[in-house]
């Protein structure tokens, strides 16, 4: 088992909560601003794949325009299998 750690980071983005929610939860909008293929379920328990499939995870909690909680992992070789981050 690899060592893990907790990283806490807070950022401020000057836009509306609705625009942020849609940027993370709408496949077309996400693809446009990241310039990478995205397939995003809008359902709790649904999966997502972004950045051409390099990042994958599942939706844990979704409150439209207020909160997104997702598991997150890189499919790269440096990310241990079975390890996920939780992002809010």
From TrEMBL:
Gene3D superfamilies from the UniProt entry: 3.30.530.20
Annotated InterPro entries: ASHA1/2-like_C, START-like_dom_sf
Domain Activator of Hsp90 ATPase homologue 1/2-like C-terminal: start-end pairs: 14-88
Stated family: Belongs to the AHA1 family.
Official protein name in the record: Activator of Hsp90 ATPase homologue 1/2-like C-terminal domain-containing protein
Organism: marine sediment metagenome
């Amino acid at each position: 088992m690899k060592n893990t750690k907790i990283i806490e980071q807070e950022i401020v983005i000057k836009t509306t909560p609705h625009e942020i929610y849609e940027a993370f939860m709408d496949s077309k909008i996400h693809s446009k601003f990241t310039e990478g293929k995205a397939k995003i379920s809008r359902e709790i328990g649904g999966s997502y794949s972004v950045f051409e499939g390099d990042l994958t995870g599942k939706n844990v909690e979704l409150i439209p325009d207020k909160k997104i909680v997702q598991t997150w992992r890189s499919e790269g070789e440096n990310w241990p299998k079975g390890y996920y981050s939780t992002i809010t």
